[in-house]
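Design request, tokens follow.
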């Protein structure tokens, strides 16, 4: 037994004390346990069925989707619901969350969001059955360094496991991890025909020039040629030097590009190329980036079901697709909250591509009454906020809501960025004034309309905590 039992007891006591104080208790119990028993994660993970999700954007939403889908097909799922994705958060999940009484041990699965750097350290301890990598975008350069380094961290973690790896084919950095791991790699992404048609129909709106994140082949240092793009550096690429290109996808998403892929309920198709099965689906969480998250979730769930279903069960892909119907937005990610007859929608943004996609979504939203941008620069956010200047405000600014508010520790930086785009703000102030600004916006907001709030990480946690008190919302750990 060793130190595991005392560490587990200490974690539970820590959680109990924190909950009495009204705190979420998502990381400190795990920190205490790791201090007492450094190998606590490997001890807890031994023999368990585990799916890990890592990458830059979409981890929490995709983890939430996978969790919901597996529960709807009969699994008991344990997950780090708050997105606490460092080793301490993972340890807390193992120690403080437990299956319901009488749960079938064969139907218990752990779905764990993992920070990119943390994944390199704990993948060996976790020994997951499936590893999903969503994408790699420039994010917190003061912490992660360049993207190739982040890719190498994830690859290091993967190489310490025997897991099936599910990779975003449209992301050249992510897809490159499959080159020397072909026998256990599965790829997903948007179909070429859909992407090419979207490029023709929406050249100035939905389609961006390739971002500077990954426009060059990491091996040859030669610029990729692109035949089509979705956003950022995602698309159909080929290195003219070594020939590395978008790999063939097993799981492919396609849709009518003449519609608005940001709308909730938007219709699209998912195809499993190995069986030629195609399933019609509806987007459950609004935002075109959630097409990628949905595709990733279906791909990971299908891959896991194939591993876990030993009885030769058929139509697992269709089963995974149909399970998506139960999905709802995760905490702080496209989370829509009713306040009387009005709404608040929180969209976490933490890097140039994330903010660009969220601004595009708000610009296309018919219910948008006002926009609040909340910018912090704590360690968890990244101290450097110069990334806001890499976001294309200018092409969207005329379609954004009439009223724009800014808040957070770095509200001055955001005010200046908005001003350079040609707009002025209607209200501003440090984070202490955020709820006052929001109440002002709510009083002017017509019934049925929505205030869209775009905070980065610690701003989102702080603001949502204030909303719990001021608007009587539930804490995420009570939901």
């Amino acid at each position: 037994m060793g130190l595991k039992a005392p560490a587990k007891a200490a974690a539970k006591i820590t959680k109990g004390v924190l909950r009495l104080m009204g705190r979420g208790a998502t990381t400190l119990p795990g920190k205490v346990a790791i201090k007492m028993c450094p190998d606590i994660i490997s001890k807890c993970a031994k023999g368990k069925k585990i799916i890990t999700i890592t990458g830059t954007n979409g981890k929490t939403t995709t983890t939430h989707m996978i969790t919901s889908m597996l529960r709807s097909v009969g699994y008991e799922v344990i997950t780090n619901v708050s997105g606490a994705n460092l080793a301490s958060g993972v340890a807390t999940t193992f120690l403080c969350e437990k299956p319901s009484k009488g749960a079938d041990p064969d139907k218990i699965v752990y779905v764990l969001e993992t920070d990119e750097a943390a994944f390199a350290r704990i993948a060996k301890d976790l020994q997951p059955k499936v590893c999903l990598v969503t994408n790699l975008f420039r994010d917190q350069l003061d912490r992660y360094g360049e993207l190739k380094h982040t890719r190498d961290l994830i690859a290091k973690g993967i190489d310490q496991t025997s897991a099936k790896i599910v990779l975003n084919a449209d992301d050249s950095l992510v897809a490159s991890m499959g080159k020397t791991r072909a026998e256990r790699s599965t790829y997903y992404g948007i179909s070429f025909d859909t992407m090419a048609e979207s490029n023709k129909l929406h050249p100035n709106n939905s389609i961006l020039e390739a971002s500077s994140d990954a426009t060059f082949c990491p091996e040859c240092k030669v610029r990729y040629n692109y035949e089509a793009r979705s956003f950022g550096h995602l698309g159909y690429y080929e290195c003219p030097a070594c020939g590395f290109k978008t790999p063939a996808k097993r799981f492919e998403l396609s849709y009518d590009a003449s519609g608005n892929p940001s709308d909730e309920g938007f219709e699209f198709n998912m195809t499993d190329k190995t069986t030629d099965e195609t399933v019609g689906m509806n987007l459950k969480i609004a935002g075109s980036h959630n097409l990628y998250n949905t595709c990733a979730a279906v791909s990971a769930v299908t891959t896991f079901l194939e591993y876990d279903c030993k009885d030769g069960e058929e139509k697992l892909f269709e089963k995974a697709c149909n399970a998506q119907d139960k999905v709802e937005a995760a905490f702080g990610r496209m989370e829509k909250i009713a306040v009387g007859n009005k709404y608040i929608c929180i969209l976490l943004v933490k890097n140039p591509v994330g903010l660009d996609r969220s601004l595009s979504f708000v610009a296309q939203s018919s219910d948008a009454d006002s926009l609040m941008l909340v910018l912090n620069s704590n360690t968890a956010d990244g101290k450097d906020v110069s990334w806001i200047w890499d976001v294309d405000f200018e092409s969207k600014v005329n379609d954004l809501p009439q009223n724009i508010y800014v808040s957070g520790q770095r509200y001055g930086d955001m005010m200046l960025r908005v001003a350079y785009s040609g707009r002025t703000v209607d209200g501003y102030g440090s984070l202490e004034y955020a709820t006052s600004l929001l109440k002002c916006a709510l009083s002017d907001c017509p019934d049925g309309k929505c205030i869209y709030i775009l905070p980065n990480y610690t701003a989102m946690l702080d603001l949502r905590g204030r909303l719990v008190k001021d608007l009587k919302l539930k804490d995420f750990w009570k939901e």
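Comment from the thread starter after seeing the answer: thanks! The chain has two domains: 4-13+23-326, 333-478.
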